[in-house]
Design brief:
Oligomer: single chain
Number of helices: 6
Distance between the termini: 45 Å
Order of helices and strands: EHHHEHHH
Helix content: 55-70%
Strand content: 5-15%
Number of domains: 1
Strand order of the largest sheet: 1-2
Shape: globular
Largest sheet: 2 strands, antiparallel
Structural class: mainly alpha
């Protein structure tokens, strides 16, 4: 991974991001950042990249190159994924594909991009109000 945290998205992921952005508004970059963040959470919930890879359906991530395609800047929230990939000796492009696939699946399971964002914001507000209540 280079110092600028730049990456390349394979065509199958780029087209999924484009479709999600077109369907629900926004940009593919915004969908990428949100799906990457959700995917990182899903990978951590599974216990790491290798366990997340094992949990995915065989056809969820096509075999072959995961680096050809559209250039993307990795959001700072996902830099932990870079570290995790290095620690578990998983190629970065595969780690990215796993996290994005898991993130996009989470979005689908929760009713779409806008609904998932609404749920995340509601959970954030709930946690913040609990923290505020405890501080009093």
């Amino acid at each position: 991974m280079n110092n600028a945290y730049r990456s390349s998205l394979p065509d199958y992921l780029a087209s999924r991001l484009d479709a999600k952005a077109a369907l629900e508004g926004g940009t593919w970059q915004g969908v990428y950042r949100f799906a990457m963040w959700l995917g990182l959470i899903a990978v951590e919930d599974k216990g790491g990249l290798r366990k997340a890879i094992d949990a995915l359906e065989d056809d969820a991530i096509p075999s072959g190159s995961h680096g050809a395609g559209r250039k993307a800047k990795v959001p700072k929230e996902a830099h932990e994924l870079v570290t995790m990939a290095e620690r578990e000796d998983v190629p970065w492009q595969l780690a990215q594909a796993v996290a994005l696939t898991a993130g996009l699946e989470t979005i689908e399971q929760r009713g779409g991009l806008n609904e998932t964002k609404r749920q995340v914001e509601a959970a954030r507000r709930s946690v913040m109000s609990q923290i505020t209540a405890r501080a009093k």
